[in-house]
Amino acid sequence: MSVDDAFGNHIKDRIESGLLLEDTITNALFDGYFYSVLHNQKCMLLDGYPRTLSQCANLLNQTQERGREILLVQFTLPHEEAIIRMQERARFDDTPEIIETRIQQFYSKRKPIIDFLSAYAQSVEIESSGSIGDVSAKVRQLVDQYAS
């Protein structure tokens, strides 16, 4: 088995177990994407990153090195609605147990992330119970406001 196969299998196993990838892997993936794609963008919207304090520190380091600011956008959604939306994704690994594991991981790690980033960034909440189109419109309006 090659290193690439072992790495791919590791990622696949973590995802199928409902677990998040390790910070070292996630940060390396983000850094590579940031350097290769986002380095000259005025504004970027990150969804699902950062999820841990280590990832927060990495994001802060990357943005400070490039003179960027962080706007913390918190999407609020009732627990029951989050379950329904995850079920509607119809991913092969979205069993009720894995969905609940992912949601619980999110909630347990969310507060320290918000606390950390709030010390360095302005924070805005977007109520997300509406349709995808409604929430997208709110995000576009916010991005337009802060990117100009």
Protein model, in words:
The protein contains 6 helices and 2 strands, in the order αααβααβα. The protein has helices at residues 3-16, 23-38, 53-65, 79-89, 96-118, 132-147, and strands at residues 71-76, 122-127. It has a two-stranded parallel sheet with strand order 1-2. The termini are far apart.
Helices and strands in order:
Elements: H1 3-16, H2 23-38, H3 53-65, E1 71-76, H4 79-89, H5 96-118, E2 122-127, H6 132-147
Parallel strand pairs: 1-2
Helix pairs in contact: 2-3, 4-5
List the main descriptive attributes of the protein structure presented here.
6 helices; mainly alpha; 8% strand; globular; Rossmann fold
Look up the CATH topology.
Rossmann fold
| Strand order, sheet with most strands | 1-2
CA gyration radius, whole angstroms:
17 Å
CATH C-level name = Alpha Beta
Q: How many helix segments? A: 6
Largest sheet: 2 strands, parallel
Helix content: 55-70%
Task: Please provide a brief summary of the model.
This protein has 148 residues and is mainly alpha-helical. It is built from 6 helices and 2 strands, in the order H-H-H-E-H-H-E-H.
